[in-house]
Design brief:
With 113 residues, this protein is mostly beta strands. Helices cover 12% and strands 42% of the residues.
Length: 113
């Protein structure tokens, strides 16, 4: 069994509006090969599916739209291994000089789960 990372895209659809956004989610999983990993990625992606009524009484549906990426990490998951990264645009008006010193130790991270 090897470790894989799967990035799945979930679509949010609202009754009478259709598609309003996507949400990407990365899962780390164990599988015997890429075919098995794809099966697991689909299975895990489907766990995000749900339907409910919003505050306006309209149906909201979250549906698995696609598996964006499926990457082999290796046989052993090493401490600190990177499983996802993406470029992030600079906010309008944000300016940082070349010699700027960042203070990451002052970060107050949020929790996503």
């Amino acid at each position: 069994m090897s470790w894989f990372s799967a990035r799945v895209r979930i679509a949010c659809l609202i009754e009478s509006a259709g598609l309003v956004r996507y949400m990407d989610s990365v899962h780390v999983l164990k599988a015997s090969d890429f075919s098995d990993a794809m099966r697991r990625a689909l299975e895990l992606g489907k766990t995000h599916e749900q339907e409910y009524l919003n505050f306006e009484g309209k149906r909201v549906r979250w549906l698995l739209a696609s598996v964006i990426s499926l990457d082999l990490i290796g046989d052993e998951l090493m401490d600190g291994v990177e499983v996802y990264s993406e470029p992030v645009d600079i906010r309008a008006g944000e300016s940082v000089d070349f010699d700027h010193k960042f203070s990451p130790e002052e970060s107050e991270p949020t929790q996503t789960v």
